[in-house]
Amino acid sequence: DAVVYWMRMGDLRITDNRALSLASAHAKKTDIPLVVVFILSPQDYKAHDRSPRRIDFTLRNLALLATSLGKLHIPLHIITQSNRRAIPNKVISFLEELSASAIYANIEYEVDELRRDTQISKAAQAKGIGAIFVHDKCVVEPGAVLTKENKTYSVYSPYQKAWLKKLNANIPYFLENCRQPHPNSESVRTTAKFGPLFDSLVPESVPGFELDPADRAKMEQVWPAGEAAASEMLRRFLRTKSRSSQLAAVDPLADGAEDSAKRSRISVYDAERDRADKDTTSRLSPYLSAGVISARACIRATMPDTKNAKVDGGRWIQEIAWRDFYVCILAGFPRVSMGRPFQEKYADIVWEGPALEGSYADELNPKAELSLATAESNIEKWKSGRTGYPIVDAGMRCLNEMGYMHNRLRMIAAMFLTKHLMIDWRIGEKYFMEKLIDGDLASNDGGWQWCASTGVDACPYFRVFNPYNQSSKADPTGDFIRHFVPELASVRGPDLHNPPAAAANKLGYPRPIVKHEESRDRALRRFKNVGSA
Ligand code: FAD
Fold first, then answer.
1. Between vectors from CA 41 to CA 414 and to CA 70, what angle results, nearest 5°?
2. The pTM is what?
């Protein structure tokens, strides 16, 4: 007999993990062993455009988890199952092999995953095995705050107010600290049935998702794996403005600067969060996306005392609420995880380049103005950071190099692709997923659809960012652009944001591939005329 906890890509931690904690309590109460299983599925990762960096980060975390769980005499058993449709059967046969009495997991809200879990749940229950799927990803779970009409909120501000109120009224429930798993007895290691599970090795890489060694080494330094590393990242954000100078040496996004006033980064977050040239945000997104730290732990850490204090709802907490909001949208409107616009009227926008219709076809959108070759060349220039707009190019090169981009730059780059180049947001969304170490469907789709004006509570279509103005606000010192666009390293002052033709040609930097005003007008026309023949 055994109790199984199925660890997924989004909950790679031992502490403060609801499903693991419940599974452990069950095992302890019935005095049977707890087993942790993780299913690696290369086909699934392909289908979800997972980035090699995200997969590598997963494996690095799993390797540490195998050791920590091993110390508790809990096996971490890895199953590789390429055909993703076969996962339900694989899970059921694993449960049968162990004569398991129950399987626990944290809910994944994407449509494919919900369908898979429903299938597993039915099959398990038919065999008398308990299947318990619980909320864990959000601070306030989907469905816990609803509008007066009992509907999912589709506007962020009232959602955030209701979210904070609900949270503060139920702090023990929402911020409850799930205990560490109870250790198995030592003899589990030598039991014929369980012993071999301890020998299951975490692979170094997954075929098709290998990183080259230099990139892997860089990722290991910039984004170290493990719960302790995540807590340290959070601690630095809350307590001090400086990062270690050692990190600053390998990580161009860490400025390493000491703040003479000894202010914490969270205390200046509201004022400085949009600065891409400074190390102002927490950089916790890879850890939150992979669940190496829980969003609950992030909130708790901002509170002096979770027993008496209230969550303050400051700007940083509001970002955590954005994360919850997008998960609620994904759970409440399944079309967004199937590549559909949240605002369905925008399904008919005329995009340049390939016609998508649910797949990435190599055909020209029949109403497009540009040839397929021109649109594809624009897409390639955007991806590689050669649009001739320094802030867009610096952001995209940063994404390619670091697997990460500052929020403001994600907005600028996404708005540029969808409005200036009039390229379908799904192309950008897919590219981000393929590159980001923090790639997460709910936040990525939410962010892309916000920028494309097709999303929930999105940026209105007529508010097209001016990349030059955005550039001087996000990177006033120019340090960010100069680092990621070395062709412009010698340029100082306002020219850096919009290099004059002669200087750009001399330095070998491309001229803008489109004109701001013209492209803006085209975007406004397309959105205004949506649906008209
Ligand atoms: P901080 O500013 O320190 O914020 C703390 C945490 O709050 C973040 O780690 C994140 O979990 C959450 N958060 C912050 N801003 C947002 C937001 N706008 N939406 C949702 N959650 C937020 N975030 C991802 O985690 N994965 C993605 O794939 C992703 N794709 C995005 C794509 C686009 C086009 C845009 C505009 C935004 C995207 N974001 C995504 C949201 C945001 O850019 C990142 O979460 C943030 O930049 C991470 O940096 P940080 O950890 O320093 O954030």
1. 110
2. 0.96
